[in-house]
Sequence to fold (285 residues):
Amino acid sequence: MFEISILKSFFQKFKAITVIGILFLGVSIYAQKPAFNISKDLLLVQLDCKTDIDDLHTAAGLATLLHYPDYKELNYFAIAGTYGIQEGLYVPPNELMKLAFGKNWADAHYKRDKSIKLVVEKVEKTIKSGGSVWVAEAGQSDFTADWVKKLVEANPSLNVKEKIHVVQHSDWNESVTEPTKLKYTQSITDYHKIADGNAVGNGTPGLKSDGIVNWENKLNDNHLTLVWNIAMRLGNQYNGKDGRYLNESVAEGGLDFSDLSEVCYILNLMTIKDTDEFFTYFKVD
Fold:
């Protein structure tokens, strides 16, 4: 009886220690998971714009998010033309980019070297101020690899994995990134692969609709209405034209800003289900 009592006491202590250990491990893992700090971090949204027109809608979606009170002070920078090795024609977004982001964007299609230099300067400034950089890879990782390499050359002691977080949602985007640049980006940065934003119900916001979305009544904002109208006009102008990719959802009157799922991941907005919920969430009365 005495031995049984000792065994019971031992197992109770062992169980308590195990539970505490599991809880401690869970807290440690949670504490180590990086999170976007809106007070000091930088968000880079890199749009390939080749050859799918979805990045036009993604730019409009980003403008919608930035208009919301919670994100009006968000430190961000958008870059167009960050494509990889895919074939096909470019989708010119400049008219939309100027309206949506003012001067807070760069044209890597026509001014790639200048855009890389500008991004490196912004990244260095952010890191020196104690912040981190988050990249929404709305396209391929070629551009990321190029500017990260320049950053490392200028700052050889920088802990890139601690300071540069890259988020990708598309297998296809990875497949048309120059292989050595994809491997470099994945190995040197804190690289996050999330579920595809084209689908609903996989844990990532599904920001692609097969039918018409009643977005205008929900936004009720003249500037954003203009931004979306231009995004849709340009999208219809270039969708499937001259050998470009035909986005069937957009051709049927729907929206596709699936690349914005990465921004939702970065800003912890993963509970948004689909395009309709997106506009409901960002409705400003």
User: Anything to note?
Assistant: Residues 2-32 form the longest helix (31 residues). The chain is about 50% helix and 10% strand. The two ends are 72 Å apart (CA to CA).
